[in-house]
Amino acid sequence: MIHKRRWYQGGNPDMAAQPGVHRSASFSRFTDELFKHLPRADQRRWAHAYVQGLLTTSGKKTVRRMAAAVTDSSTAAQALHQFINASPWEWAPIHTELMQWAERRTRPRAWTIAPVVLPKRGEQSCGVHRRFVPHAGRTVNCQVGIGIFLSSDTGDVPIAWSMLLPEEWSDAERRQRARIPSDAMATAECVLDLANGLAQRAAHGPMPVVADVTGYLDTSALIHGLGERGHDFVVAVPDNLMVQPGSHLAARQCAEGAPVPSARFIAERVGHAPQSAGAPDGFRPYPTGLVYLPRGHAQPGLPRTYRLFAQPDDGQGRPGGLWLTNMTTQPLGELRALVDGQAATAAAVGRMERDFGLRDFEGRSYPGWHHHMTLISAAFTYDRLAAHQEVCHIGGFTPEHGTDSNEPGEPARPFHQQAPAPRYHHRAA
Question: Alpha helix locations (H) across 229-306?
Fold first, then answer.
């Protein structure tokens, strides 16, 4: 109780007992910038320690093991647990700082929205439920996070998270016990609001959104929401999504045929796709066509024109799926390149699972989960974008070679002076 009282009074009895912990200049600058909105100095120090623990602790990232990696204090584990699960601090400002920090070190090309399945035991952790997981092909007891990644040619880094809350978590008593805010919902609207807020605070210009949340969120709601917010997008759609065959002119006026499932629409175009001039022998063009969503799914006004296309499989027997985009005049190769970029997102998630404790959160509360996911994002992004810029040591962590772009004599270039990233435009339907 003495330690707990000192924690809430802003005391920090453990951090002083760290004489052997290396504090690299670049890492300290990173955490100082990222956590400057935290109201108390002890919160900022424990945030630094948690990220440091994620970077330096081998194996499972439990609070006890991470505390042991950054300090010899016997009470550090309790304090670190309190910081993640009980200390009241907002994670949204950290998302903004992390995004802006990443923007200065890479050239963003897209926002990527993807689900992350976190298997869990028991039923007490916030948001845990049993569900069929499409990519696993089986039912899993799990939490589901919807991640928003900043994608670039340097790789994908996680910026923000939303937790999918199924119907069984609408119970008021259960939500109160897990400290779930009243406005936290499991809808595409919440993910859209989160992505839109990040895009509005970004320093770069508009970028397309690439999303595959089939089986997790309402795909139609996501498509309409992205369009209404003015985003260019490429969204994975289920085989049974009903589409209306059309063209730029006809889709504005009347149907060219009865609504059909998207898989059937594509299947009917197999063998009818035009062969590109100069294509090598044996090259098989992939089918595509212009469609709009039936009036029953659309908002009032003229129907929006979309392009539906099939993505080839990945060469390992996994299908590429069907994708819908509002960038109807964009070359198909560029659209498919955006979809191919999801491999970088999958690689980032895999590394977060292996090396950054993505599945190791030990708490049960909604705020605790978001605190943990936010600090994992910080650790991963620092490792991905800063570690290769400067030889430094953070405990046992040794990044790759390079220099820090913020060091004197080698300042970071303002974004508008960097080489431009690809821009995507489409003609309004």
Answer: 250-253, 262-267
β-partners of residue 151 are 110, 156
For 69, counting Cβ atoms within 10 Å of its Cβ (0-12 exposed, 13-18 middle, 19+ buried), the class is: buried
> Tokens 């309004």, residue?
428
What is the SS3 assignment for 92? helix
Q: Report the distance separating Cα 74 and Cα 150, nearest Å.
A: 38
Cβ neighbours of 294 (radius 10 Å): 15
CA distance 395 to 21: 6
For the stretch 73-127, pLDDT in tens is 889 999 999 999 999 999 999 999 999 999 999 999 999 999 999 999 888 899 9
Q: What Å distances lie between residue 129 and 96, 120, 173, 180, 409, CA to CA? A: 30, 9, 16, 15, 53
Are the C-beta atoms of 236 and 212 separated by less than 8 Å?
Answer: yes
Q: What is the pLDDT of residues 373-426, one digit of tens each?
A: 999 999 999 999 986 554 334 444 333 333 344 333 333 333 233 333 343 444
Cα–Cα distances in angstroms (integers) from residue 194 to residues 190, 191, 197, 367, 370, in the given order: 6, 5, 5, 16, 13
Burial class for 268, CB neighbours closer than 10 Å (0-12, 13-18, 19+) = middle
pLDDT band at 283 (very low <50, low <70, confident <90, very high): very low
Burial class for 346, CB neighbours closer than 10 Å (0-12, 13-18, 19+): middle
> Are residues 35 and 69 in contact, defined by beta-carbon separation less than 8 angstroms?
no
d(CA 323, CA 236): 4
Contacts of 67 (CB under 8 A, 6+ apart): 14, 49, 53, 73, 76, 77, 79, 80
Q: Which residues contact 418 (CB under 8 A, 6 or more apart)?
A: 107
Rounded to 5 degrees, φ, ψ at 23 are -120, 95
Distance CA(28)–CA(20), nearest Å, equals 16
């212009």: which residue's tokens?
290
Global pTM? 0.81
